[in-house]
Design a protein that fits this description.
This protein has about 425 residues and is mainly alpha-helical. It contains 17 helices and 9 strands. The protein binds (2R)-2,3-dihydroxypropanoic acid.
C-alpha cells in the first residue's frame, strides 16, 4: 500500500527527473551529482525499476577512458550554480567536474539486482548488470591507482567536495596550507538560494576554488594531482564506502561468474590498511592527513560507517557503540554529522552538525547487519521521523529536527522511500 508520505516522495523524484537523471534539487543543484544519483536509484527502485537502473547508467555514460566518474555532470546549461563548466574546464562533452565522489554505486547496483531477482526479473536485467559491472570495476580500479597511490588500503581525497562532506571540520587543518592568494573574485550562487548560516564559509569556498584551479592547471591528470595536490586527506567516509562497495562488487562478480581476484585484492589491502585511520587518542575512526600523518580526531557521522564496511573488530566496535550511546544522550535525532560535544558543533551548518538521511541509511544498514539492530533501528526510525515531521529537506538539525539547506531534496525522498518500504 502506498501511503501519502510515499506519494509525496515519489512526486519529488518525478519533479526532479530531467529525463534519465535526477537533479538533487532544482534550484541549488541543477545538474547530475554522482552519489546523489546512486541513492536516488534506491528510491526509484521502490516504484519504477527501469528508471532506477537508468539513473545509474546515465551517470556511467560520462565515465572517462581511465575509469574516472566525475562528481557533477553538466548535462545542460544553468546559470544558477557556481562553479559551472567553464570553471572546471575538463574539456569533456558533456562537460563534467574533475573530481569524483563517494563510490556508493556498486552497493546500490547490488541492491537493484537483488530486488530485480526477488521480483523474478533477473533475466531482464542481467545484460544491464553485465554492462554496469565492467564500468564499476573500472571505476574502482581508478580509485586504487589514483586515490591510493601509496597502496595503504584507504581513499585519499583530493578535494573536500570529493568526500561529499564539504565543510566537515576534518578538512580545516589539512586545508590551511592551500594557497588562496590567486583565487580572485567570484560570486557564489549557493548563498543566493539558501541562508549563509547553513553553508560553508568564504574561507572554505576560497580553498575549494583554489583546489579546482590546481586540478585544472594539471589538465585534470589524476596521477599528477595525486602526486602534488596541496590537499591529500585519507577520508574515513570514502575509505569505508569503497571497502563496502568492493565487497558488493565481489558478490556481483561471483553471481556473474566473473573473475573476482582483483577485487578480492583491493578488499584484502583495505582490511589490512584501514586501521591506519583508527585514532587511539580519541578512540574513533577518523580521517587522516596523508601529508602530515595527523589524525583529525573528530567523531563524525562518517566514523560510524565501519559497520557498513563490514569491519568486525570487537574492541573498536565497542568503542564506536559507546560513542553512539553518548551522542544519543545529547541529541533528539541520530546521527549528527559532528559530535554534539565538539565545540565546533553547529546544528544547521551543513556537515558540522546536521543529520543527513543518506549517511543514516548507510550507518543504520551497517549497524543492523552487524547485529546492533537496537541502534540500527533507532537510526532508521529517527530518519523517517525527521522526514515525515519536517519534510524532504537536504539535512536536519539533530537537536530540534528543523530543516537545513534545500527542500524537496531527491536523496532524502529516496531514502524515505527505501526505508518506508522495507
Ligand atoms: C556544492 O556546490 O555545494 C556541492 O556540494 C559541490 O559538490
Amino acid at each position: 500500500m502506498t501511503d501519502q508520505f510515499q506519494q509525496a516522495a515519489r512526486a519529488i523524484l518525478r519533479a526532479n527527473d530531467r529525463g534519465g537523471y535526477t537533479v538533487p534539487n532544482g534550484r541549488v543543484y541543477p545538474f547530475q551529482w554522482n552519489w546523489d544519483s546512486a541513492f536516488v536509484a534506491l528510491g526509484f527502485d521502490t516504484f519504477d525499476r527501469d528508471r532506477a537502473w537508468t539513473e545509474v547508467e546515465t551517470l556511467f555514460r560520462v565515465q572517462w577512458s581511465d575509469g574516472f566518474v566525475p562528481h557533477i555532470v553538466f548535462w545542460q546549461d544553468e546559470e544558477g550554480y557556481f562553479p559551472g563548466p567553464s570553471v572546471w574546464s575538463t574539456g569533456t562533452e558533456p562537460p563534467t567536474s574533475g573530481i569524483t565522489q563517494p563510490p556508493v554505486a556498486a552497493t546500490v547496483v547490488r541492491r537493484l539486482w537483488d530486488s530485480a531477482a526477488a521480483a523474478g526479473a533477473a533475466e531482464d536485467f542481467r545484460p544491464r548488470l553485465e554492462a554496469l559491472f565492467d564500468k564499476l570495476i573500472a571505476w574502482h580500479r581508478w580509485f586504487a591507482v589514483n586515490r591510493d597511490h601509496e597502496e595503504r588500503g584507504v581513499v585519499v581525497a583530493m578535494h573536500p567536495w570529493e568526500t561529499g562532506r564539504d565543510n566537515s571540520p576534518e578538512w580545516d587543518v589539512p586545508g590551511e596550507p592551500i594557497d588562496i592568494s590567486g583565487v580572485g573574485d567570484y560570486v557564489r550562487r549557493d548563498t543566493g538560494h539558501l541562508d549563509a548560516k547553513m553553508r560553508p564559509t568564504k574561507l572554505e569556498y576560497d580553498r575549494y576554488l583554489a583546489l579546482v584551479q590546481y586540478g585544472r592547471a594539471q589538465g585534470w591528470d589524476h596521477r599528477k594531482i595525486a602526486a602534488g595536490n596541496p590537499f591529500r586527506v585519507a577520508d574515513i567516509g570514502m575509505s569505508m564506502i569503497l571497502l563496502r562497495a568492493n565487497r558488493d562488487l565481489l558478490a556481483l562478480a561471483g553471481m556473474l561468474g566473473r573473475d573476482g581476484s582483483e577485487i578480492a585484492g583491493w578488499i584484502a589491502r583495505a582490511e589490512a590498511g584501514i586501521s591506519w585511520l583508527w585514532d587511539e587518542a580519541t578512540s574513533t575512526w577518523c580521517s587522516r592527513d596523508v601529508l602530515t600523518g595527523r589524525f583529525s580526531g573528530f567523531v563524525t557521522s562518517a566514523s560510524f560507517l565501519s559497520f557498513y564496511a563490514g569491519i568486525a573488530d570487537p574492541a573498536k566496535d565497542a568503542a564506536m557503540l559507546n560513542h553512539i550511546e553518548r551522542i544519543a544522550g545529547k541529541v533528539r535525532y541520530l546521527m549528527p554529522s559532528l559530535d554534539p560535544e565538539d565545540p565546533g558543533f553547529q546544528m544547521i551548518r551543513y556537515w558540522r552538525g546536521p543529520v543527513w538521511a543518506v549517511v543514516n541509511w548507510m550507518i543504520g544498514t551497517g549497524l543492523s547487519e552487524a547485529g546492533h539492530d537496537n541502534w540500527g533501528g533507532k537510526v532508521r526510525a529517527d530518519t523517517l521521523d525527521l522526514i515525515r515531521t519536517t519534510g524532504f529537506y537536504e539535512a536536519f538539525s539533530p537537536i530540534d529536527g528543523s530543516g537545513s539547506g534545500g527542500d524537496d531534496f531527491s536523496w532524502t525522498a529516496a531514502i524515505g522511500l527505501a526505508w518506508s518500504k522495507d
